[in-house]
Amino acid sequence: MRNAALLDPRDLRRMEIQSRSGVDGAPCILWTGALDGGGYAMTKRNGRSSKVHRLMYESIRGEIPSGLVLDHLCRVRHCVNPAHLEAVSNAENVRRGSNTKLTMADAMAIRDEFAQPNSRTKTAIAAAYGVSRTAVRLLLAGETWVAE
For the whole prediction, is pTM greater than 0.70? Predict the structure, then answer.
């Protein structure tokens, strides 16, 4: 259910549009109010702390589907621009995280290469992608980078 009243008008004073381009040319809308320990924008609603990016998403796009989390496509945790948010599985959100070295396309390419009769070794593939041999082994075993 869409509810434009999720944010108090006072909350709007805690947002500023960042001058640089963000996702698809849309600028980040940065929260200048309180942040939690992880750097996410926070506000009080009815005596409870709430994450502002979730409120913004729900105000514009509706409820976050059950079992999904919001991914900041711009990688800026205190950005509250709904255009920069995508509902994804937690696994996908972790995959997209700033510490992830591989992409799903990389994972598919590694699987395709390893399926060939004269493929490089796991160690050589790991070195080429800048990951550990264990990361390649887990990927090939289907324990990581599983398409959803």
Answer: no
- Cβ neighbors of 61 (< 8 A, separation 6 or more) are 2, 82
Please give the helix or strand (H or E) that residue 122 lies within, else none. helix 122-129
End-to-end CA distance of the chain: 26
Residues 77-98 have pLDDT tens digits of 889 989 889 998 887 787 777 5
**85 domain residue, yes or no:** yes
Instruction: Judge whether 81 lies within some domain.
Output: yes
Residue 112, in any domain of the structure: yes
Q: φ, ψ for residue 51 (rounded to 5)? A: -80, 125
Using CA atoms, how far apart are residues 148 and 140, in angstroms rounded to an integer?
16
**Collapsed DSSP state (helix, strand, coil) of residue 133:** helix
Q: How far apart are CA 93 and CA 148, in angstroms?
A: 12
